[in-house]
Amino acid sequence: FLRSKVVWITGASSGLGEYLAYELAANGCKLVLSGTSEERLNAVKSKCLKDGLPEDDVLVLPFNITDFDVHEDCLKKVLQKFQKLDILVNNAGRSQRAAFAEIDVKVDKELFDVNVFGTLNLTRKVLPHFLENKNGQFVVTSSCVGKMGAAFSASYTGSKHALHGYFETLRTEMSGKNIDVTLLCPGPIFSHFLENAFTGTPGQKFGKPTDPKDHRMPTDRCARLMAVAIAHKLDEAWICQQPNLLFFYLVQYAPTFFRKVLVGKFYTPERAEKLREGRWILPRRVASVMFASMRSNGEWGSGSGKGGGSGGSVRDAGGSFGKMEAAREEEYFRKQQKEQIKKLKSHLQDEIEHHEDSIKKLEDEIKRHKEKIHKLNKEEDKVGK
């Protein structure tokens, strides 16, 4: 399905947009790469070319998603280059870390300009082209928080809920017109997303990287599953590791239990502080049970098909990936677990070396103090005599 499709990706200079570009390039798509950093976009283009994509099949088109006035001109450049556009991936966005009560309304407005209004304006510019061609697909990078609440991300969570409202409506209006809407809901991933995240203060960035010890999905893995969902034109895809996938189901089918029981047990003051700092730490008991479940059935994501029914894992969406793909995912999981163990061992070894170094410094300090005391004792004896 994807080969030779013209795909326009916003937010393509880093994170999910960057890795999605690599996945689509590997599948023979023609790419339009947009973002605010032309230098980073050219770096992404270079990697796509190294992977075999022809030079003429990539257009670097830098612009700021909040600069609404340039959207139409950008679309004209895309059509001038490729004469058509098949898929628009609305991926541009920024995250947030701040307590609800501390958020300035200016931050709410600025975040919505990036995450919602810029996306809507660009979509409305592209829609007439899709209608004229009687074909097209809008892809929206939402988030797991587009389906549930998330502490210390009120504006971000609100923006993702808004995207679901707008694009569910668009899907309804486009019914029977061969124009598809795919909402992608990734869970926590490893990326630089938090470094550029909003806080509650205008003009301030969160500025902290994700912690390698956190329970997150690798960005390249998430991008690959996003490509699978796009290829199968899923209405909605939940792309995350367990137990986050379980949380999705509970929010959908047992919301009261999720909010009153599970959130109450999980949301301890200690974990709340870690969430505020951008960490994603799972209760050890929950994580171990979910890991056991993952080993037994290989589930990594879930999606609803075009008919709206539950589709199992993203791997099985449309029924075309089969046993070979299941085996690959199982092998990927084993490799990831080994990598996580390796990273944890390395981290612990670093901690040991750090503590050993600290102990040695303390021992040296104690030795120096003892020598000083010895000298002072001698001086005291001289004074006494």
TrEMBL record:
Start and end residues of each stretch annotated as Disordered: 298-320
One GO CC term, this protein: mitochondrion
Compartments it resides in: Mitochondrion
SUPFAM superfamilies cross-referenced by the UniProt entry: F1 ATPase inhibitor, IF1, C-terminal domain, NAD(P)-binding Rossmann-fold domains
Coiled-coil ranges per UniProt: 334-379
InterPro entries membership: ATPase_inhibitor_mt (IPR007648), NAD(P)-bd_dom_sf (IPR036291), Sc_DH/Rdtase_CS (IPR020904), SDR_fam (IPR002347), SDR_family_member_7 (IPR053011)
Record carries keyword Repressor: no
PROSITE patterns: ADH_SHORT (PS00061)
Keywords in alphabetical order: Coiled coil, Mitochondrion, Oxidoreductase
One Gene Ontology MF term: ATPase inhibitor activity
Family according to the record: Belongs to the ATPase inhibitor family.
Protein name per its UniProtKB record: ATP synthase F1 subunit epsilon
Gene expressing this chain: DHRS7
